[in-house]
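HUMAN: Quick job: go over this next protein and say how the chain folds.
***
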Amino acid sequence: MSSSWLLYMLVVLLGGNPLLALALVVASAWGGNAWWRGRAWRPWAPLERWRKRRELRANLAVNPHDLTTRGELGRMLVERGQYAQARDELEQVCGRGKTLALPAWNLGQAYLKLGDLGAGQRWIEHALSLRKDLGYGQPVMDLGDYFFDRQRYADALPCYERGLAVHGGSIEGRYKLGRCRLATGDASGARAIFDEAIQAYDASPAFKRAQDRAWRWRAWWWRPKS
């Protein structure tokens, strides 16, 4: 915030144009966020997602028994943070399509976000029983995130270990596992996994490093120094 304010004042002093200064500050913040997160912000993306949800609902009005369409709508509602609505849609899908792994995972996500650990864990484990490699280990890491966010690190630890057994290249998963080890008194184990996260990041291709940059620096920050 202070750097943006200084940039604004500098441009105003040099150019005498407050509107130009504001535009440059916005552009700078946009570019910096894109560099840090590894992807550019698209201002029209919310409109595209709204149109897609509207299209899915229109299709369901014509064919309410289309499990694929309802499952896609449920997934998008989870991404949007409308977890209660997502749960209602996905319950209909999973009640009739008991062998559909992706909607079961999304339903588990919705329940976890709503604070229902029992139902969330049950649906995630069901999804993984259908496809062990579903989401490259992300479903069980979602379960770990439930515990992690509540500082239940001892419960989160085996979840991240399970997830990394499926997808060992996850920098985020390594960072969170390191935090769990550190919180449970395993400083040497935490240091080792943080080192692995940093080494894996350094060996990644450029596009992957851009996506994982924040997790790499968090691993460096939390790594025990001795």
Q: What stands out?
A: Residues 18-37 form the longest helix (20 residues). Residues 2-29 form one domain.
